[in-house]
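Chains adopt folds. We examine one example:
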Amino acid sequence: MNKGDYHHLPHVKEQSASKKTLWLTLTLTSIFTAIEIIGGLLSGSLALLSDSAHMVSDVLALGLSMFAIYMASRQPTSQYTFGFVRFEIMASFLNGLALVAIAGFIWYEGVQRLIHPEPVDMGLMLGIAVIGLIVNVVLTLLLHRSAKEEENLNVKSALWHFIGDTLSSAGVIVSAILMKATGILLFDPIISMVIGGIIAIGGVKIIRESYVILMEAVPEKFDLESIRQDLSGVAGVLDVHDMHLWAVSTDHYSLTAHVLADSHTQPYCITLALTELLKEKYGIVHSTIQIEHAAIHHHGEYGRQFLTLT
C-alpha cells in the first residue's frame, strides 16, 4: 500500500481473544475426535460415528477459522484495498456448506441402518458419549463467551458446530440408554438422523448470514430508508440518492451516497455533518459522500426539481 494512501479506518481485525479460544478449542477437539472415531469403530454405533464425523468437520472448520483470522489481521495492499477481512465470511460460508453436507451423509447412513440394523456395544458407546458431552459443553461455553466479546462470524459458525456436537453427544447417551433398556437397535440410527437435522439447521443459518454479506446486501440491523431520511434532514441537503450500504465483514460497515446540496452551504460542512451523523447514530464509520449540484451534475428530469432550490 502506498504510504501516502491514508486510511481513517483500519481494514484489519486483530481479535486476540478469538485466536486464543479457537486454538484451545482446536487442540481439545482434535484429541477427542481421535478418541471418538476409535470408539465408534469398536462399538459399531452409527450415532457415535456420526458424531465423530461431525467432530472431524469441527477440526477442519476450526483450522479454516484460524486461517481466516490470520488473513483478517493482514494489512491492506494496493490490490486488496479493503484488506483481507472478508476471508472470514468466505470461511464461514464453507463451514456452513460442510455442516449441511455432513447432515446429508448422516441421514443417508441412518436410512441404511434402519433397513439393515447392526449390533452395537452400548457400554463403550455410552462411556465415550459421556466424555464427549463434558468436552463439548466446556467448548461451547468458551466459544459462546468469545462470540459475545468479539463479533466474528467464524466464531459463530464454530459455536454452531459445537452446539450440534453437544446435542449430538446427548443424543448418543439417550440412544445408548434406550437400546440398553429396550434392546431395540433402531434407536441408534433414529437418534443419529435427529442429530443430522440439528446440524443442518445450524449450517443453513451460517450459510444465510454469510451469503447476505457476500452479496453485499444491506445488513438486517439497518433500515436504508430511515438512514436516507436522517441524511436528508441535515442542513443544506436537498436530496440523497444512489445509496449503498453493505458489510465487508461482520462488524465492518461501509456506506456510499450522492448528495444534492444547495449552493449556500459549505460542502465540507455538509460532509462533516453527514459522516458524524452516520458514526454517532448508526455506528457506520466508513462512509463516502459525494456532494453534487443540480446545475452541474446531470440528473435528467429527476434533477430539474432541485434547480430552483439551489
